[in-house]
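Predict the 3D structure for this chain.
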Amino acid sequence: MAFPIGEFDRRRPQPEQRAVMPTVHSSLDMGLPLSAMKPISRRTFLATATLSLAATRLRAQSQAESSITLNIAGEATGAQVPDDFVGLSYEVQQLVDPSFFSGSNTGLIEQFKALSPNGVLRLGGNTSEFAWWKPTPDSHEPTHPQTREVEGEPKAQYYAVTSEAVRNLAAFLKATGWTCLYGIGMGTNSPERAAEEAAFVANTLGPSLQYFQIGNEADLFNHHLRDPKTWSAMTYLDEWLALARAVAARVPEAKFGMPDVAANVGWLTEIADRWSTIENPPHVVRLTHHYYFGGPATNPEVNIPNLLKPATMAKVQKTADMAAAAARKMGVRVRMTEGNTCYRGGKPGVSDVFAAALWSADYALLLASNNYSGINLHGGTGKSVANSVGGFLPGDVMLKELGATPEQIATRPHPFYTPIATFDSNYALQPVAYGLRFAGAFSGATFLPLDLSSKLQASGVNATAYAAKLPNGRTSIIILNKDAEKDLALTVDFGTAKTGGVEIETLRAPALDSREAHIIDSPRHGHLVQGRYDVIVPKASGMRLTLI
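Done. Predicted structure below.
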């Protein structure tokens, strides 16, 4: 059977994990209706896509008179994208299995390297609030405070993070070339235990540790971990300072990201306003927040058209404006440390299809253009994410109610939004990861400060575009045509003084609701004519043009 992915399929025996291999297309879809098409092989699709690139250029030459012109001549004075912009987020509970993030898990290592040669792994999530540090096999479990059980939050099932798991994590990071944002619990932790764990982690991970995150989605603690009558951004900050100062006392060089809110970005503003009044504050290097487009899976508003419509990114821009303003006040940058399409594990037919690839590429590029230091798309194993949201995935319930068999459900990635899925003995990049990888081509680049997306959308096509100067000095533009019906005819004006060829890369799939994605390099280069290049970006696809 075929994987629902693109070029970077990798395998590793894992007898302890049980699932069946997925097919490329499924008869169960919660987003748009499935396309009226027969399943095609990956080879047939790739061959057809390559031929269509040549046809696209020919059509563009004949339709250039009616095309939209994007002028991307000028200096790159916009946001500079860090080399490690691309990232993934996992639950801390993933460390319960010390072999998962380890140097011996070659299948997962290969998928991380396929996504990015130097990304950032963030460990946190809801389960981080119920972890306890177990430095030795003889260490005793501490007494835990009483918590409330609410829908969508973890049950009070505590688990240990061991020194073996952290040592294996260090080997995994070294093998992948990635660094780590390490989450330490706040909701049920103590300053002493936090400091002890941090000291071991800092010593073990060494340069692979970027910074600590203390507390996950503290703006929701009023639901289950704190008194809703008194909990606020300021009471959070007081508690956070006690924990961070305890860590800094044991690890003087410790750096921190905070507050890692779920949705209330106003907390970033409140903290930034107070920060200058704090005497000898801990070394904060990032302001952080989370983002999910919508949820849960039972919400009918979580669908492909709403995911891709311009209003969705307009809301993202408002959040970015607020977060960036707070970060400037503190002299740091922002990172989106946990997010995806649909909270509580994703929605089948939306989170695990090609539409999610276009969404993730657009979301990543929009944040990058707003000077974010990076994004971490959330994922992991079905068990760890299910535990983080109350013990089950709403998407599974939906599929069962629609009559899906256990075998059919097992063909879906679990959780549904995970960038890297586990299918029996295989790890596989999912469509949402391909969108992130496509946007990751701008890692290390500097944006041209141009509003290209508004011009495209004013033409009546649901499309966005971003231009940047790559580290090698070449100019590159990414166009994302999210429109389900309209192709986009473009004339890209690189400047009359520019000459030479154009390298073409596309992000493609048979349809928006296809459970696959492909990044395809054109075997032939285009050529500028008086500094211009005419092209058609097909509906539901992405394209990157780079001067060579």
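The domain at 86-441 is CATH 3.20.20.80 (TIM Barrel).
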